[in-house]
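user: can you give me the structure for this one chain? C-alpha cells are fine.
assistant: on it. calling the predictor now.
[tool input]
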Amino acid sequence: MDVDSDRSVADCFAGIYDQGGHIDVLVNNAGIERHGSVEELPLSAFRETMETNYFGAIRCIQQVLPWMRESRSGCIINVSSVAGKISASPFAPYAASKFALEALSEALAGELKPFGVRVAIVQPGIIETPMPKMRFFKPRSSSRRPLQS
C-alpha cells in the first residue's frame, strides 16, 4: 500500500476486514528521508517527509483503532528513530517528522490506555540501509586478494 494515499490505505485495510480478518498489531515502519540545509531545501521536501513518516502513520492508525478499541486489545508500534530525540544537520525534515511521530505516539498512548491498546515507540540508530548508506557507510578497502579457484 502507499501510505501517502488515503485511498490506498483505506482499500488495504478494507480488504483485510472484508475477508473477516482483524489486526492485533500495527507496525508503522514506512519512512523516507530528505536532507539538506533548511535554507536551501524546498518546502516540498519537508512536506514529502511529513506525508510519509508522520501522516502515513496516522492514516494506518486511524484504520485499526476502531477494531482495537472495540476489542479492547492491540498494539501499535511506531518506528521512529534516534533522530526523533536528537536532531542534527542536514536532517531537519527527517528529524522533524520523527519528533512529530514521537509526540503523536505519546499522546496516543494516553488516549488508548483505558481501552487496553498499547502504543510503543522503537528508536533505532543509524542502520546500514540504502537510505543512509551514501552518507554514513563507506566501502571498506581490503588488502586481501580475492580467493582464486
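assistant: here you go. Residues 136-147 have pLDDT under 50 and may be disordered. The chain is about 45% helix and 10% strand.
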